[in-house]
Predict the 3D structure of the following.
Amino acid sequence: MRRRLLATLALAVAAWASPAAAQGPVPLQPPPLPEGIQIGLSTDVIRITADFAGADLTIFGSLENPDPLINRQGRYDVVVVLEGPGRLVTVRRKSRVLGIWMNTQSESFVNVPESYSIATTRMPQDITDQNSYRQLALGTDFIHIQPAEIVDNPATLQEFRTALRERKEAVGLFNERIGGVQFLSSNLFRASLRLAPDVPVGTHKARAFLFRNGLFIKETSAQLAIVKSGFEQMLFRLSRNHSLFYGFCAVGLAIVTGWLGRIVFRRD
Amino acid sequence: MGIYLPIAEMSVNVLVLLAMGAAVGFLSGMFGVGGGFLITPLLIFYNIPPAIAVATGANQVIASSFSGALAHFKRGTLDVKLGTVLLAGGIFGSTIGIYIFALLRSLGQLDLIISLTYVAFLGTVGGLMLVESVNAIRRSKGGVQPSLKRPGQHNWIHRLPLKMRFRTSKLFVSVIPVLGLGAGIGLLSSVMGVGGGFIMVPALIYLLKVPTNIVVGTSLFQIIFVAAYTTIVHAETNQTVDIVLAFILMVGGVAGAQYGAKAGQRLRGEQLRALLAMLVLAVAIRLAFDLFLPPPSIYSLAPGI
């Protein structure tokens, strides 16, 4: 009898101490804090050096005030996206003219992200429905791609939009990693994103989306600069800002190489 | 071993590029041409954007031509005066070519025109050279002395006014065809990223009747300057010269060129020309295939409008 009482008491204490009891009608319990999501980048700048051949970017993050019950059931989902700078892009279509394949039609789009890497905890269709993806403009299929000028009919525009995505995916600039986000503990997660070898330089935006039971809860973002490292950046700037001087340097280099080559490898 | 190209903004394999440069350099040393007509298509096959392949090809050509011209200058097989007149025309043609290049690029037809001009010129020049050299080989086998230069036999070119004397080449000819030839090659140089040696060499031999031993050196001499001019103007107007890419190709190229020159001395003139002709034709056929076969994707992306 005494033993049973003690056990009940212990249970009651445990229930009082645990936030899970929030479901129960305990009058002392404050209302649950809203769930949130935070991400942190290990670096704000990625430098592209001469030997850059693509890279994996790891982003750590945590859930704030997760509901332990839902957490235990694994019904929190996280989608992490790294979006490159937006630029004007022209999509051209080839068709056969006199037997030769040549560019005949084109469509320009504004503010197209140059790169778009996405990592998810599960298959996208298991996280939420198409509608929420569309509303959030989340995922390569749902990014807003606006034409520079609306002259052609919607069907043509849609065809070129699809082609744009396909080409970007073919070279790895748009990529998707299912299972790229992993929970390390109940509220700590790690996202691993793929940077293509020709990832564009500029300011990239990292965003993380939190879903609970298929519902969008919260979004957070951080910025990441991708720059060319010292020497590559210097050459690039020189070619843009002092292009004439750059041209003379290129010629000078060729003359010196030709002359040295003759001395070093001379065979006659 | 990957290396990042700052202007092309892509990662490439440095060993592949070195090998490419060396192979082309070997052939260019062997045949006495700059090798631009091979390097530019090779770069395009290797997925370098055509605009960058053309401008960088021109840059690479300077190195191999300079290296080759030095050797000819020492041997005295270089007509500086003839080269200078060709060059004057070349600069004019090259300037026009750069504007055509920028215009085609904005129209989205640059890649097509580059391929088309390659197919047309390589096909024609390669075909003509093959026929001529096969005939020459046949004649020499039949015991008849082959001679390209037939003194006393003049064509319409030799009746034009404004004649000038070129001592080294033992030539007395009007400057009009010389300037015209220079201009035409300058134009091709900037649109195709070639020095133009593969057209200049046969044109000097067959049209102007310059002695064969002087032709290669003189052609290389003028190519250095036209390619240098083209490189500078491309860097200035189109910003498509990738100095890192060019340098890798040059290193492979100048090394290969010296070995190629040695190998070339062992072959007879007409055999050399027949081989060069087949090489030129092979590149033309490969490019023509790309024009006529359905592309892997009919869509392509380009920055800007």
In short: Chain B has a mean pLDDT of 80.
